[in-house]
Amino acid sequence: RPTLRARPATPARSPSESRLQVALGVSSGVMHNLGALVSPRFGLELGGDYALPVGRIGLRLALGLSFASQRIDVAGAEDAQTTSQLWLVPTAVMLTYALRRGRFAPYVAGGVVAQVVRASSDGALSGRLVETSLSWGGRWLLGLGLQLGPGDVFVQAGYQYGRVTREDLELLAGGLLLDVGYRLRVLR
After folding, report:
1. Cβ distance 69 to 37 under 8 Å?
2. What is the DSSP string of 21-89?
3. Taking the model in full, what pTM does it have?
4. Buried-most residue among 37, 110, 146, 181 (CB within 10 A)?
């Protein structure tokens, strides 16, 4: 007599087991250039990663915005001040490596960054000056993601290097970074 045997159902893959994943992220944080510049940061990112036998390797494109302003008293001039503003718009392309353990995913990221730097000053003695430059550098991050819903809440810290050196402007356009955000997996 023939016997009918049922095969056990193949369990569905969880999002962390998918070979290819694509995520869209938003973040906010702060940048400090180890000098007078402390700036809020806002960012958007799009990234994809691929499962390796141990961990996941990926590529991430990150766009950001930072800004700061300050007032400087001019030495030797009574009631004379200069107001300066700085806008940084960085675009980074980074390689990433994450190692998911349960709901947690520690990761490292590093790559190149190009940023548009717009500096302006308005002073009683100097008048209005505006300078726009392109700065090349690097960004390196350490982070930790926590799976929450269809994505990960993350916190990351690192360093971004960028320098503007011109005749009338010298600036470290980077520094220490600290961000929090959320990455939504849009392709699993």
Report:
1. no
2. EEEEEEEEEEEE-SSS-EEEEEEEEEEEEEE-SSSEEEEEEEEEEEEEEEEEEPTT-TT-EEEEEEEEE
3. 0.80
4. 181
